[in-house]
Amino acid sequence: xxxxxxxxxxxxxxxxxxxxxxxxxxxxxxxxxxxxxxxxxxxxxxxxxxxxxxxxxxxxxxxxxxxxxxxxxxxxxxxxxxxxxxxxxxxxxxxxxxxxxxxxxxxxxxxxxxxxxxxxxxxxxxxxxxxxxxxxxxxxxxxxxxxxxxxxxxxxxxxxxxxxxxxxxxxxxxxxxxxxxxxxxxxxxxxxxxxxxxxxxxxxxxxxxxxxxxxxxxxxxxxxxxxxxxxxxxxxxxxxxxxxxxxxxxxxxxxxxxxxxxxxxxxxxxxxxxxxxxxxxxxxxxxxxxxxxxxxxxxxxxxxxxxxxxxxxxxxxxxxxx
Amino acid sequence: xxxxxxxxxxxxxxxxxxxxxxxxxxxxxxxxxxxxxxxxxxxxxxxxxxxxxxxxxxxxxxxxxxxxxxxxxxxxxxxxxxxxxxxxxxxxxxxxxxxxxxxxxxxxxxxxxxxxxxxxxxxxxxxxxxxxxxxxxxxxxxxxxxxxxxxxxxxxxxxxxxxxxxxxxxxxxxxxxxxxxxxxxxxxxxxxxxxxxxxxxxxxxxxxxxxxxxxxxxxxxxxxxxxxxxxxxxxxxxxxxxxxxxxxxxxxxxxxxxxxxxxxxxxxxxxxxxxxxxxxxxxxxxxxxxxxxxxxxxxxxxxxxxxxxxxxxxxxxxxxxxxxxxxxxxxxxxxxxxxxxxxxxxxxxxxxxxxxxxxxxxxxxxxxxxxx
Lengths: 322, 372
Prior knowledge:
The complex is a heterodimer of chains A (322) and B (372).
Chain A (H helix, E strand, L loop, with lengths): L2 H27 L7 H19 L2 H25 L4 H19 L14 E2 L10 H5 L3 E2 H19 L1 H11 L1 H6 L4 H27 L12 H11 L4 H20 L5 E2 L2 E2 L1 H4 L4 H25 L20
Antiparallel strand pairs in A: 1-2, 3-4
Helix pairs in contact in A: 1-6, 1-9, 1-10, 1-11, 2-3, 2-4, 2-9, 2-10, 3-4, 3-9, 6-7, 6-11, 10-11, 10-13, 11-13
Chain B lengths: L6 H6 L2 E7 L7 H23 L4 H13 L2 H26 L7 H17 L9 H30 L3 H23 L38 H18 L1 H11 L1 H6 L4 H28 L10 H11 L4 H18 L7 H21 E7 L2
Helix pairs in contact in B: 2-14, 3-13, 4-8, 4-11, 4-12, 4-13, 5-6, 5-7, 5-11, 5-12, 6-7, 6-11, 8-9, 8-11, 8-13, 12-13, 12-14
């Protein structure tokens, strides 16, 4: 129950949520709700682990995992952008397909022990900073450091670059963006692809770094859905997503660690004496997601922030926009 | 509004594909398109199976044989279809209002838990008449399911919390809640299941009447099927013949108009999600009392999620849900014997993808013209 260890592990597990959340932020900013995150993560985790195991090259695994998840996302993109189908149902279908396909293709992989993994290291200098050093910069996976770079980069891209402005425009008011010569369809395909690749990266981060291996559906255990919830909490802002993702990661670790010691706050640890009570601990991340949604929604109303206006609405050129 | 999707095809090909919006949808078209989508999905599934080294023809033949091959296995198929009908109805009534209740799985578990509580607390004894025990279990199961629907309902109505996420999260919470009881309080001898229910808590099966009707011997179909069929009629009546159903449909089709018409959307949100939860809870009760006869972890091969597909495939029509449920019941039944175990889930997903993609054909007419 060392708080440093809990936070350190929280940052590591939170990195998975961070990648998936930022990916979904990109897709939703472009106006496409993709509920297939869980399925894409599973496909990413499975293919990354499979490739890393058979080639011995973890980076190749990451690359393939990202591409496979990205390709899967294009199925959703085609159905909702081209065929203008309902985004909720299509996203659910994508999760079904991704889950089922990863179980079929990953058959037998669960017996394979972890092979090539992504490297972990400490950052010299930064690791010496008191308190923050051990949490953020000591013996972390390379993916964690990638997360530190990705979130601010995504934030800068969305709010401070020309393409980022176009991205926000096609999610808020596609008709206006269209009249300015922005290719709505192509960009929406592109950002759904980016979202898929990041979901794949999240999956690969699980199977090659955070908890190595392939454990069928338990590999992700609903983290894809938590990421969809975090997007709302993050108000479509990658920097807020960073905060939420790490807090969540720490919570998950805390739940594991709290079951260990015999004494808890000076009293005997009821989670150790009554094992079945740990199921209430298991509920916490999910209950927390709901609570966070309540907070996020209230805040959104107060600050007049909210989902991109065109989120979930197919764009048909020449039709009156909403 | 000539649709844009044709753009890339125009240059490369000697003909031009155009999509013209349909003014009228012929009555036979939706069924035909859905059927075509299922056939296409099965073909895609077969190709994937062949690619991973399986034998698709053998796999499909096995699915057909082990679900429709004889009266006995068809009876088993109906057993699997029973919870699907109820969960499909649960999804359909919520989806009709465009409320995305993805939480039927959790509501199913809570329903099973509520029904079990009647027997395990225990509120009744071994000798209580089944005429009291069974209705009590139904009420408890539906109430627990409705409570699990009430939570996302009130969160949506009061705080505008996205019901997709909240219902999904409640699934995980429901399963953990269930686990707490089967691993702890109601565990039998430390095993992860409760004791077997006494006979007065079992729904009657066809086989129970084998003494009077010889043909029923060994048939597992239970009274839950009747609950499901009655529920289908009730849901149809609510949606199509009642004022409440009219308002639900209006909210689903045009929330703004519904608001101007003064329909209390918030109240309907809560009530519809509660009804939806109650139906899924009844499915849990029927499964626990008609099939499993004890509370344990493995009571659902994802009925709650399959129900979503069932509802969508049936175009939210309660009677079509019965037919589609039998098809998917067959898939689930056969799925237990098929390896790898992900195949039924994968095929379900592909069916859903093909289905929503095919909806395009209902809205647009495909015209192929030669380029002059």
